[in-house]
What does this fold into?
Amino acid sequence: MAKICKIYDVLIIGAGAAGLFLAANLRVKSVAVPEKNATPGKKILASGGGRCNVTNRRIDTSNYLGDANFVTNILKNLDFKDVLKFFGELKFNEQKQNQFFCESGAKDVLGVLLKRARQSGAQIFCGVCVKGARKILADENGEILDASLAKEAKFDSKNLQDFKSEQTELFEVLAENGDKFYARNLVVASGGLSYKKLGASGIGYEIAQSFGTSVTTPAPALVGFTVQKDEFWFKNLSGVCFPAEISVACANKNAANRESNMPRKFAGDILFTHKGISGPAVLNASLFWQKGLIAINFCPNFNIETAQKSKKQLSTVLPLPRRFTLEFLRAAGLSDKPYGEYKADEAAKISRLFAYEFAPAGTFGFERAEVTKGGVDTDALDANCCHKDTRGLYFIGEVLNVTGMLGGYNLHFAFACAANLAKRLNAE
It folds into this structure.
């Protein structure tokens, strides 16, 4: 006997930032949210060091890697004030780089999302790992027309009548445990590959490819760099942290203008680790790095003339941790002494402090990356994230080939995608 199945108006794969914000803003009859993890919003809980930086006062397309026109169209309908209003029952502090952190922590941010999603009638199914999705047809009697599935399911006739069609197109979503979900609209909000311990999955990329959409190879982003042999001295400085400036070539073929393709500079703290180098400035640089050289100015606010005039040892004059300066000198084969006592060739080595070029060996990988760059090709989507060739199919959030810098930009983009789509689906 055929199993009686329910048809949802909207099925959202993934109970993360994008999926929950969409569910919270939908006003349709029925919404299902299958989530791989045993609990929803795990990555939200980890964001901002547990304080969840939900948005940024300076939201702008220049803060993102991806197609500039697409990003602009997504961002223009959601201001940072809109995000703060949505979470109006919580208090946020505006801190460094114009980020808004939740005073009571990420747990309360997730709590608001879940409460609002459930108030909208969304059903969240945790522990459901999606395996694949496809489009099927059902007739006016609720029978699936695909011969291979003819005996597997029958839809409730009243449920089917809502779609007002003799032959109704539906999405069938298959879970690894054999369960099946059916919906008129399918939204893929499954995220990227970063932080696998938080349930990261590549299912969104697989679904996109199954519908004929290309996927830019995913790579770790907002992540530290490992180093090659010449920079092994970095590892001896594990735990040392100070402000610096990093320059990286930015060849963004989707950029809106030439300036976006120029080398970019990122100011902020750098942190030496046992694996290489990390810290906010490094993480932002990693978003735009595509192999090859980067350059670090270890003393961005220091004039070498100050050292030239001083009789003190270099490690005392430089505004750097002494441990760093001594290790830098040791790696360069130099002793610590007044700058005026260095020969010309030695002074040339010291000048590298202001433009230390090197090619990272790679990154710390997906396990340490905060986000994933690459993903579903946005050329295949319209301004509402709808697949141009498949009616009712949508991709939102980190699964897309759009990635933001540190500072609340990625959460804001996820919310913006969801807000745009909610308006469209609510209007249908």
About this structure: The domain at 7-150+165-218+370-426 is CATH 3.50.50.60 (FAD/NAD(P)-binding domain). The radius of gyration is 25 Å. The chain has two domains: 7-150+165-218+370-426, 225-363. Residues 147-151, 253-259 have pLDDT under 50 and may be disordered.
